[in-house]
Design a protein that fits this description.
The structure holds 2 protein chains of 2 kinds.
Chain A lengths: L1 E12 L4 E11 L3 E5 L6 H8 L7 E9 L2 E2 L5 H7 L4 E4 L3 H4 L6 H13 L4 H13 L5 H6 L7 H14 L4 E5 L7 H17 L3 E6 L2 H4 L5 E6 L2 E7 H7 L3 H16 L7
Helix pairs in contact in A: 4-5, 4-7, 7-8
Chain B lengths: L4 E9 L5 E10 L5 E4 L6 H8 L7 E6 L2 E2 L5 H10 E4 L13 H11 L5 H4 L3 H18 L16 H13 L5 E5 L7 H18 L2 E6 L2 H7 L2 E6 L2 E7 H6 L4 H9 L8
Parallel strand pairs in B: 3-8, 3-9, 6-7, 7-8
Antiparallel strand pairs in B: 1-2, 1-4, 4-5, 9-10
Helix pairs in contact in B: 3-5, 3-6, 5-6, 6-7
Classes of the chains: A alpha/beta, B alpha/beta.
């Protein structure tokens, strides 16, 4: 079943400068797609367009279907109906995704009440279960904590728990591990991998890092300056990119990867 | 050979807080690049501040060219700032936006009074010609062409700005370049080019690089020696090939295993 269908999506500034130009892709349940690009590639704008979250001074044309809803040109009330329930999103910086003045437990409770209709003690149980599901070590402490009182890794786990609490079919993860330490990044990638598989969700994973995407997605689109330059399997692209820019991207990543080759002489 | 910078038994505590650094011993020798690897909270930024003389160790000692670091004395301050330069992580905040690039780069020459006496005695015109020439040489060394000198930082890309920051750091012909996450804010293709540049400049100018980073791959690409820092303590320190190839410590192994790799590079 196609959950997300993007056709000829273009995004431009009011002055008409193109930021994304003619991008198309689709996602079925259980499918995972990575979008790789550097600064200015349009990868994050694409993820915002899918949720109808583009800034007001940008205009989108083409078509983005989330289920039956055409997102482009949709009214805010229609968009609210799909955000959370159909599409969840996890951003790079969990501090901006969490309300700094509200305890974690309350933030989860709001989502659980609205999307799952839970009330009273059932909310507390579900909030605790949501944190346990994302492998938070001391879930009771974290429920009572404010965002600034927990570590960056815990905050990103909480952001994932919040995005999943509403039971979306599609998860968009926009550089979800870029701000994290490398050991925490590895844990969070494993966690996302397991949760998405368990729920048979469609995953759109946005990143600048081809090594990161290779851990979680099979297929990727490489973007540059708003345009798709290449798409294929991660393996195919790493080993036989057709486009010169993609080859440059891989060669740069390869340079660092090779530097670690010491680690393989074990 | 006398170390250029040496830390012996260095400890550091911020007021009313648990110690940030414990008993750090390290030496920066000419011709050897040292990588200091650590995650959040490892104390790597504090260690850098101590090595730069920006923080005074609460125990132990930092020595510069064999003598205790004394920045209260103008002559030794000038010698230290001339010989030990720094490049920071964020090229967007480390350059004064109001200054033209040529002034940004010439700043260490002016503030440290590094214009040779013979040139000073020829008058202001000779001084500014000499400074222009040094700036030109530094710009060429980092691969930027002359017309960039008259622009302001806002007109430059992130990679160009980081090249400017490097040009400013090398204009005084330092013996040591301390680099605090100098490429982690950059795109991967730019990152590879800047790491190559720092490496080439180090060997061409006989300048030792001290690279502080959370990123093992960057350290592996650049440094002969690697030091792993965790919770303010040195867990291990040795040749990079040994530390990465045969780590002594379980944490180092976890750090290496967490780095996302390209498919099939095992």
């Amino acid at each position: 079943m196609t959950l997300l269908q993007v056709d000829a999506l273009s995004i431009a500034t009011r002055a008409g400068a193109p930021l994304v130009d003619g991008l198309s892709f689709s996602l079925n349940a259980g499918e995972r797609l990575g979008i790789i690009g550097e600064s200015g590639s349009g990868k994050s704008l694409t993820s915002l367009a899918v949720c109808g979250l583009l800034p007001a001074d940008l205009t989108a044309t083409g078509s983005v279907h989330v289920g039956d809803l055409e997102v482009i040109g949709a009214r805010e009330s229609e968009l609210i109906a799909i955000r959370g329930s159909r599409v969840g999103i996890v951003f790079q910086e969990p501090l901006t995704a969490l309300d700094p003045l509200m305890r974690i437990g309350r933030q989860l409770a709001i989502v659980l009440r609205r999307f799952r209709g839970l009330r009273g003690a059932a909310i507390d149980d579900a909030a605790l279960a949501a944190l346990e599901e994302v492998h938070i070590r001391a879930p009771k402490r974290v429920l009572r904590a404010f965002p600034h009182e927990i570590s960056g890794g815990e905050r990103q786990r909480v952001a994932i728990a919040l995005a999943l609490a509403s039971g979306p079919e599609i998860l968009i993860a926009d550089e979800p591990t870029t701000a994290l330490d490398v050991t925490v990044q590895a844990e969070v990638l494993d966690l996302l991998d397991a949760l998405v598989a368990e729920r048979n969700m469609a995953l759109l994973f946005i990143t600048h890092d081809i090594a990161v995407v290779s851990r979680i997605a099979d297929n990727v689109i490489v973007m540059r300056s708003g345009v798709e330059v290449e798409r294929g399997t991660v393996r195919g692209i790493v080993h036989g990119a057709a486009d010169a820019y993609t080859r440059d991207l891989i060669a740069s990543a390869r340079e660092f990867d090779d530097a670690l080759a010491f680690g393989d002489i074990r | 050979m006398t170390a250029i910078i040496e830390a012996s038994g260095v400890g550091f505590s911020y007021p009313h807080a648990a110690p940030t650094l414990h008993n750090i011993d390290l030496a920066v020798r000419q011709g050897t690049n040292l990588g200091i690897v650590g995650e959040s909270g490892s104390g790597k930024t504090t260690l850098l501040a101590v090595l730069l003389g920006l923080q005074r160790p609460t125990s132990g000692q930092v020595r510069f060219s064999g003598a205790p670091l004394d920045l209260g004395n103008r002559d030794s301050l000038v010698a230290f700032r001339r010989d030990v330069q720094v490049v920071f992580q964020d090229p967007y905040s480390s350059l004064d936006p109001r200054q033209r690039i040529d002034r940004v780069i010439a700043e260490p020459l002016r503030s440290l009074g590094l214009v040779p006496a013979a040139i000073r005695s020829d008058g202001r015109r000779a001084v500014s010609e000499w400074i222009d020439e040094q700036v030109e040489v530094a710009l060429r060394a980092v691969g930027l062409t002359g017309d960039i000198a008259r622009r302001h930082p806002a007109a430059l890309s992130g990679g160009q700005r980081q090249r400017v920051a490097i040009a400013r750091a090398i204009v005084s012909r330092p013996k040591v370049l301390l680099a605090d996450e100098p490429v982690s804010a950059l795109d991967v293709t730019t990152r590879a080019r800047i790491v190559d540049l720092i490496k080439e400049l180090g060997s061409a100018l006989g300048m030792s690089i001290v690279m502080v980073s959370h990123d093992l791959t960057v350290v592996a690409a650049l440094c002969d020696e690697t030091l792993v820092l965790r919770k303010g303590e040195i867990l291990e320190h040795g040749a990079t090939a040994r530390v990465l190839g045969a780590p002594n410590h379980a944490y180092t192994r976890r750090l290496i295993a967490s780095v996302p790799r390209l498919p099939n590079s095992e």
